[in-house]
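Two records follow; treat each independently.
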Amino acid sequence: MSEELRQKIEQQIEAAFADTPYPGDDQIGKGANDEVTLAFRGTHWRDLSLKYVIDYGMDLQVLTPEGFRFYLPAFLLAVIRYYGQVSTLPISLMHSLAPPDPNLYLKYQEKQSPHHSVSDFLSRVSVFTLREKAAIREFLMSYRKLYPEASREQRHLNRALDFWKTA
């Protein structure tokens, strides 16, 4: 069951993002010369190595909306395929797919924290097509079935699921 579900989700992600346009070399990260932009420049999401996905998993927040849209499938697929090998990537991925926690948002604002704002989040997720949104939603809905032992990312997963059910 779980292997069939995993394959179904992989296929849906690959199909949904097959024609997603490359954002352009200067539209990957929020800075033209930031580390993520330099690492990903000229590389299709299908060609990102697992090492790059793991190394830059904590940097999803610095991608432009177009860069996030284009490279997200590499991160989704890495978690699906290599869950036990990708360290903190599931937490970072769930965090990037969830709106800011309203209980923590004021605390972040007071400290001038770099954590993303509601407007940043909405800007990042507004560029997805209906087909891409459906693949993200299916990934999130299947996550608990595939990884019932996952506990660290549950708080973010719950917020992400609540958002993507209606996105």
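The next record belongs to a different protein.
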Amino acid sequence: MSRRPLVVGVGGAVAVALAWYALLWSPQTTSLAKQQQAAAAAEAKLATTRSAAIRQRAGAKDEPVQRAQLDLLKAAIPDNASVGTFILEANDVAVQSGVTILSIAPRAADPKAPAAAAGLVATPVTITASGTYDQVVGFLARLEHMSRLIVVDGMSATAATGGSKVNVSLAARMFSTKAASS
């Protein structure tokens, strides 16, 4: 008989240990593992957020320079063709160089032109002007330095009647991000 209480006591102790393991230890271990995974994910997100904040602060330092560059690009390649504005600017350039503009003839943009692949609209324009050789060279240099981007693709020059003047015809393109409205 003395063995029975011992077996019952040991069995009870084992039962209590199993119940403690099943009800307390195992769920806490699972919960601890989940919390460790959540902490690791939070640390990774924190590291990503910190690096993004550092990049943003670094970008903020360069923002005035980037804005100035963007403004220059917007002036060089405006949102629309603004043919009238271009004609006024070209006329100012002609007056500054002493050249007489005989004609400025823009044509419809070609949607299949290589510039279209870059999202740009290239509006062909023919400029005919007259002046001395030095005036024409000055006109070309000033055209190159206009705020508006213009690319001269071809040029022909002929002597004007009277001998000292040159008539020049320029085949050029001006760029915008949208086609000219009619």
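Discussion point: The CA atoms of residues 149 and 181 lie 19 Å apart. How would you locate this feature using only the token line?
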